[in-house]
Amino acid sequence: MPGSTPPQASFGRDMTTGSIPRHLVAFSLPMLAGNALQTAYSFINAIWVGRFLGKTALAAVTVSFPIVFVLMALGAGLTLATNILVSQEYGGQNFAGVRRVVQNSTALLTVLALALVAAGEFFAGHILRAMGTPPDVFGPAVAYLRIFFLSMIPSFWLFLTRAMLLGIGDSTTPLSFLSVSVLLTAILDPVLMFGWLGFPALGLNGTAWAAVIAQTTGLWLLVVHLKNKRSPVRPSLGLSGFHLPTTAVTVRIGIPSAVQQSLVSLGMVFVTGIVNSFGEDATAAFGVGSRIDQLAFMPAMTLSMAVATVAGQNIGARRYERIREIFWWGCLISCGITLCVSALAVSAPGHLASIFTTDAAVIGLATRYLRIVGSCYGFFAVMFISNGIINGAGHTLVTTAFSLVSLWVVRVPVAYVLSRRMGGVEGVWYAMGLSFFISMASSIAYYRTGRWRTPVGVRKPVVPVAAFGEETGEA
Questions:
Q1: CB 234 within 8 A of CB 12
Q2: How far is 44 from 48, CA to CA, in rounded Å?
Q3: 12 inside domain
Q4: 444-455 burial by CB neighbour count: b if 16+ within 10 A, else e?
Q5: Residue 443 falls within a domain, yes or no?
Q6: How many other C-beta atoms can be found within 10 angstroms of the C-beta atom of residue 368?
Q7: Chain centroid offset of residue 394 CA
Q8: pTM for the whole thing?
Q9: Is 233 helix (H, G, I), strand (E, B) or coil?
Q10: How many folded domains does the chain comprise?
Q11: Residue 10 falls within a domain, yes or no?
């Protein structure tokens, strides 16, 4: 009938049957393309800022991002919980449950986004001072942050909608609208930075305004598309979608992830503060190295989300025997890609650093960063996959604990001690590599026990140990 709602099963991708490597690759490729677009934009933006606005502007962006990440991490916890719940409900063919999760999460995120933006606007300057931001960098960083925070509301909605689409196995739709948003940002960046086409020259602030405009436009187009298609994951405006039992489960899964990502981001604030104590060149070098980290981690992070979604659907469908194969194929693909980036970072660090800056001192420090940290990228590739399985079962509290130990027990204190003992910022680089190894070892050790086999989220029986290998849960 005209105007009738399409069958819910016609949306998304059922990954509870068929070839696991085929599902992982087919589901990951659009996500990887989207993340590649975002990374490419980040690279281009860093080149615009570093080469044309100078190292002070590059340092201002570098010190700003840990603060942004702390706030974004809170929203990311909610989006991860939503992805897990949607994938489990969809895998179990409970489409009314999918819709309930969507409406509830949309209402929760709206309230959270408004509160975080208000907090960010008020505390930005105080946090930058506490980080020991160099005086020349402080003013540009505050101005940049206060504009950039405005983009967080549409960004939160975009992240949530993307997570819901991924939960039903649709990774193609997010790519289409992300492409529009990234392309628009890339066009607006130089226009607003340098005052082209009659616009005022806004300098570094122009990149922040470009993000606000592009994210808002991308969100509006995506919401209109989903409503026209009557998608089961179309977001609902307003606060009427609160459902207490669903909220309780969402919070149970999302809070540990939000705490994890927030404290990880806060830890990076402390690490950045340690780096700042060695001067503007060290801060800029850290920013350059972080861009390469982003490139290295992107495939593994993408596969981690794919693994969590595929595992979540199979858990929802009670196809527990497929979990072990999901893990091994995820590791094989993740390591194969990440180790290529690691080899490039270690063998040609100076060439990579010179893409972002012409300052010899910054290039020298960034070269040492890439040789030390780049050699440890493989640890993260494995950790992301095992965490994806654990998160797919809803055990986000466990991965939270591992991340916090790695960061707060290892990275931050070791970075402080080594940088003082070695008399230079290289101590921070070594601490980061060590923390990568600790993260991987903790996650793998827990995965092998099989203790996470009772899922959190939709009601499920205890998973038979045999589904995970031998007595330990993984041979």
A1: no
A2: 6
A3: no
A4: bebbbebebbeb
A5: yes
A6: 17
A7: 17
A8: 0.67
A9: coil
A10: 1
A11: no
